[in-house]
Design brief:
The structure is a single chain. With 176 residues, the chain is mostly helical. It has a domain at 67-175. The chain is 60% helix and 0% strand. The chain contains 9 helices and no strands. It has helices at 25-35, 49-61, 69-75, 77-87, 93-103, 111-121, 123-138, 145-157, 163-175.
Length: 176
C-alpha cells in the first residue's frame, strides 16, 4: 500500500530567477541542429578520444554557444576542481565531456541515464548538465543526481530546459 498522493516521479527543482535571461541561444541552436539531424552519435566511455576528435571538432565549429567552457568552469567550481584533478586544465568541450564521463559514476548516475542524456541533449549539453548536477549535489541541493538528470532530459524533450540560464544563475549566485 502506498499513501494517497505519493509519486515516484523524479524531483525537479524549479527556481525563480531574479534576473531572467532573454536569450536562449545555447538550447535554441542545439535544438535546431538536432532537428536537422546534424547531431553526431557519440560513443561513450569505451571509445577512444581519437574516434571522437573529428566529430567533436566539426560539432564544436558548427555552432557558437553563449555558454563557453571557461564560463561553465566558473559556474561549477566543484566540477572544475574535480575535472582538473583528472585531466589538468579543461579548455574545450571534449575535455568537459571526458571529465563528465569520469564524474558521472561518482555521483551515481547510471551509464544508461548518461547515454540517454547524450542522445537527447547532445554531448556538450549533457556534459554541462553533469557539471551542474555535480556542483548542486556537492552543496546538497540535489539528493538524486540520476533522477535530476532524467528530469532535465524530460524538460529538454518538452522544450523547457534552459541550461544557460542555470549557468548564469550559478555565476550570479557565486558573485553575490
Amino acid at each position: 500500500m502506498s499513501p494517497r498522493g505519493a509519486a515516484d516521479d523524479p524531483h525537479i527543482l524549479t527556481t525563480n530567477e531574479l534576473n531572467p535571461v532573454n536569450r536562449n541561444g545555447f538550447e535554441t541552436k542545439h535544438a535546431a541542429s538536432a532537428e536537422a539531424g546534424n547531431q553526431p552519435d557519440v560513443p561513450v566511455e569505451g571509445s577512444s578520444l581519437e574516434d571522437l576528435e573529428g566529430e567533436w571538432s566539426s560539432h564544436y565549429r558548427s555552432r557558437s554557444s553563449v555558454v563557453d567552457v571557461p564560463m561553465l568552469m566558473a559556474a561549477c567550481p566543484e566540477f572544475g576542481e574535480m575535472a582538473r584533478g583528472f585531466d589538468g586544465d579543461i579548455r574545450d568541450w571534449p575535455g568537459v565531456h571526458r571529465a563528465a564521463a569520469k564524474v558521472r559514476p561518482m555521483i551515481a548516475i547510471s551509464e544508461h541515464a548518461w547515454n540517454v542524456a547524450q542522445k537527447a541533449l547532445g554531448p556538450e549539453m549533457a556534459a554541462a548538465a553533469i557539471a551542474l548536477i555535480y556542483d548542486k549535489h556537492a552543496v546538497g541541493e540535489v539528493s538524486s543526481p540520476g533522477g535530476y538528470l532524467r528530469g532535465m532530459v524530460q524538460k529538454a524533450q518538452d522544450g523547457e530546459l534552459h541550461i544557460d540560464r542555470s549557468i548564469y544563475g550559478r555565476l550570479s549566485g557565486l558573485q553575490a
